[in-house]
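Example record for the data management plan.
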Amino acid sequence: MISVADVERWADATRARAEAKTALIDQATALHTEGHPWRALHRPGYRRHQEDLQRAERQAATIRTYQPNVVPGLLQIAGYVRAVLDVNAFGREDPADAVKARVERQAILYDDAKSFAFVITEAALRWRLCPLAVHLAQLDRIASLATLPNVSVGIIPWAAVAPVPPSNMFVAFDDSLVLVESLHGEQALKEQGDIARYLAQFERLDALAYHDDEARTVLDRIVADLRGMGD
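Corresponding structural encoding:
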């Protein structure tokens, strides 16, 4: 497809009227944006969408994920996956297969040829979707995966001053695709200008996050607080 930048250059070169240029840019941008409601994505079965995500992950060398609400899918344990599915009430014919489909994707984390960067808010790590034992096991899983050499886990603590606009969860595959999730569904962005904005947003968010030992300190504090509260 023609890029939005090429459309803009063509409009300038042909001295298109301002309203015509705007309309052409809007049409080109729409061609590079795909919107899919969750009910459509999961109608063939939950596994189908997970396999689509798996293909995108296999094709990318660097995957960046920002998650302000829940644990990112690639880091979720089976019990947490089941809780997410139950809360969202996705139509699925086989709950066990749905959980398996998401967990199967996580094998790619052990591919040293790929790089994964996760930025998660402290609020997402504290948000309880499941029993305490499952939640604690989930936090332990995150701490374990963060030790992989190709995996970076950044946590934005509650105390951080965040001078960036809030945004929904998104994941960037190299500089070729960004998926943005909302309550309604998922948007696939392929226009370079849009992708660049999300990559810049990720860098700003990552700069706010704690990493390595500091991130582990945040995780330990969350675990201690949860244990003190009981189930």
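Summary line stored alongside the record: The chain has a mean pLDDT of 87.
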